[in-house]
Each structure stands twice: as structure tokens, then as C-alpha cells.
Here is the input.
Amino acid sequence: KRALLVQKKRCLAFCSMTSKGAWKHAVAGAAAGSVSVLANHPLDVVKVRLQVQDGSNPKGTVYRGFFHALKTIKNTEGLRGLYAGLAPNLVGATVSWGVYFYSYNQAKRRYQNWFQTERLSAPLHLLSGFEAGGVVALVTNPIWVVKTRMALQRKSLLEGSPLHGTEPAQYTGMRNALWRIAREEGLAGLYKGLGPSMFLVSHGALQFMAYEEIKRAMVRWHATCAGEQALACAAVDADHAAQQGVTRGVTRGVTMGVTSAAPASARAATPSTQPTGDLLPMEHAAAAVISKIGSSTVTYPWQVVRSRQQQRMDPARQSQYQSMATTFKSVLMNEGVSGLYKGLVPNTVRVLPASAITFVVYEAVSKMLNGVQDSS
Here is the structure.
């Protein structure tokens, strides 16, 4: 009973301590999302344009692939075209990552409190990710609708006008887009694509579960290496003591404050590896990339469906992408399974470094904020 009481007090103390610093996860997540978007936005523009390319507009530009799309956008629209929709993407990523990391850590703390443990299992990490993803989807969906539509707006590099005369009047900015969508399409317009977004919650949940498990494996590996090094150093100490004469060395150390065995003992006490709980930035990046590959590939068709639903369409095409089910059916019938993976190459090129950047920045900012709090 006493052991259980001690464990409960320790867990409650841990949860109380971490709840005070919950804001740090939000700040670190927001910073990580911002840096990631600025570095990878052109790839996101290419991905979205390839995702919605269904051949319905014969007058429109047809992109033959990732590199052709990148080159065509650069030549016809310039750098501005590659950064179309940057503002809503930056706001959306900052808000979503901030909310996600905050909600995720709040959910983890709640489960730690419920189960009276500091270390959660993989299913509980997965459940925490699902909770956080659902909150993010509800909060940020209107921003992603605006981002998708602005990324699809095409302007001539020379005239600054739409490339195709049949396109509707373009949005002049994020606020203008939000206002016009709300006025012209209502709340339903702002929440187009929410269905696939809720399914995409599994993407983040799977990634975070894998990320936590990979980090845990890395920490265990470092602990094993540190233990082996400590044993090796202890053996060196024993050999050194035998050669120098342990009795004479200890006596001299007591009387004069110096011991000939000290250098080897110091090496044993301070192994050359980094602390087991403090992974290197490259290790955080590796864990993020590995966890992203599987989750991104499995859930990618839902991203295509979401982009198709969120784009601006003429009335004749609206019924084609009216719901998640009709969108899936339309893509499979007209384009086959490959249609559900359009834009996968730029998405992979984008998300792997983006994921690495996001998690490395998040860990670095969290560590910095913890240091500031500790010093104060």
C-alpha cells in the first residue's frame, strides 16, 4: 500500500509540474510549424495542383509530373506562383501545430493521471493523437479551404491576371477569401473537406505513436551503450589499479588528495555518449522521417479527396465532388487507383524534410523554454 501511495504521489506531482508548462508545447509547436511551412511551401503548391488535376478543364495547364509542374509554375507565374496561398498556410500550420502539440500533451497528461504512470503505452499515445487531431481539424478546416483555393489561383507573370478567362474573380487575400466563402457558400463552404480531414486524424495519430516509440527505442539503445561503456571503463580501472598498486594509490589519495586511479574512474563516471534522455537533433529528425513515411503513404488518398472537395468549382462539377463517397467514386471511375495518389512525389519530397524540421524545431524550442523556466 505504501508503495502504491508513493507511486500515486509521484505521478500526481509529475502531472502537476507538466501542466504548468503546457503553454510551452503550444509555443514550440507553433514555431516548428512556421519554420516548416516557409521552407516547403512551393512543394505544397505543386502537390495541391497535381491533386485536383482531373482533366475537366481542357483549356487549363496540364502538368505532366512533379518537375514539369515546378518548372511551369516558375516560368508562367514566377516566385509569386510558387508561394500562392502562403499566408493561410503559414497561419494554418502555426495554429494547427500549436493546438496539436498542446492538445496531444494535455491528453497524455490526462492518461498519465488516470493510469498513474509516467510512461504511456503505444495505444494510449495513439489515442492521444486521435484526440489532438480531431480538435485541430475542427479549428483549422476553414483555413485549409482558403489555402487550397489560393494555391490553385493562377496569375500570368506578365499581366498579373488570371491565366484562363473562365476562372471566377480571384481572392485578393486570406481575409477576402474567408469573407467571400462565408458570404457565398455559408458555413458549409468553410467546412468543405471536413470528412476526409477527420479520417486524416489517423495520419497524425499514427505518426506521433511511431515517433514516441522510435524515440523510446533510441533512448534504450543509448542506455545500453552507456552501460556497456561503463563496464568497459570499470575493467580498465581494475587493470590500472592492479598495475599501479591499489593499496598504495588509495593511501596516497587519502593523505595527499591525489589518486593515480582517478583519471580512469572519471572516465567511468562520465561516459562519452550523450545523456540517455537527451537525443541529438539528427536523431529527432530520423525518428520524425521514419514515422512520417508510413503514415503519409497510408492516408494519402484522403488528402486527394479533401483537395478535390475544397477547390472552387463551377455548378456542373459540384455534384461530382459533393461528398466523400462521390469523390472517391468519381476519382476511381475516371482516373483509377493512380488518381488517388496524384501529387504523391512532391508530397513525399515535402513532408519528409518538413516533418524533420518540425520535430527538431519543436524539441529545440521546448528545451530552450524549459531552460528559461528553470533559470528563472
